[in-house]
Amino acid sequence: MLRNPLKRDEAFRILVNSYKRRLYWHIRSIVLTHEDADDVLQEVFVRIFRNIGKFKGDSALYTWMYRIATNEALSFLKRNSKIQGVDNEDSQQHLLERMTADPYFDGDQAELELQKALASLPEKQRLVFNMKYFEEMKYDDISEVLDTSVGALKASYHLAVKKIKKHL
User: Fold this and answer.
1) pLDDT digits (tens, 9 = 90+) for 40-53
2) How much of the chain, in percent, has pLDDT values that exceed 70?
3) Is 162's pLDDT higher than 70?
């Protein structure tokens, strides 16, 4: 760990600049709206800053950060569901409605239909599909992020693809 605060701050600034875009889009694929993704991303970088000294190097730095981002985004969704007093499925519908009203959403009807199909998936399948299909992550990296076996991830991805095709 860097002891000099100026070097530590500069190193963290480089880390933020290197990963903020990828983490933003990963978070956005979970929470769907720009405003929520922006809020969660800030929380993610606060957690990373506070816990970087605890990073053991057992995994790649980016998968460690993805795990934090994933957990923060999922916690955010659970808090919002609890506040709204709705279950996860109703919460996903509400998120879809907010996404289409989001001024940063520039998708067409096909994009909207895909998002509806994704919203109908169970949480784990949705996460695996987003990381594999959109973010083009390797199964080994997804396995580290989600703490799940590669075999289980492949099965989840396969099921997600079948459900999305059926929905579309």
Assistant:
1) 999 999 999 999 88
2) 81
3) yes
The amino acid at 66: Y
**64 vs 67: CA distance, rounded Å:** 5
Q: Residue for token digits 């994933």?
A: 70
Contact criterion met (CB below 8 Å) for 137 and 131: yes
Instruction: Look up residue 134 and give its amino acid.
Output: F
Contact 31, 76 (CB under 8 A): yes
SS3 percent helix, strand, coil of the chain, rounded to 5, is 80, 0, 20
Tell me the pLDDT tens digit for each residue of 112-155: 788 888 888 898 999 999 999 999 999 999 999 999 999 999 99
Model confidence, pTM: 0.82
Exposure string for 46-78, b = 16+ CB within 10 A, e = fewer: eebeeebeeeeeebeebbbbbebbbebbeebbe
105: its two tokens:
């959403």
Q: Spell 90-123 as b/e; 16+ CB within 10 A means b.
A: ebbebbbeebeebeeeeeeeeeeeebebbbbbee
Q: Alpha-carbon dihedral of residues 132, 138, 140, 144, nearest 10 degrees?
A: -60
Whether residue 72 contacts residue 27, with contact meaning beta carbons closer than 8 Å, is answered with yes
Torsion angles phi and psi, residue 95, rounded to 5? -60, -40
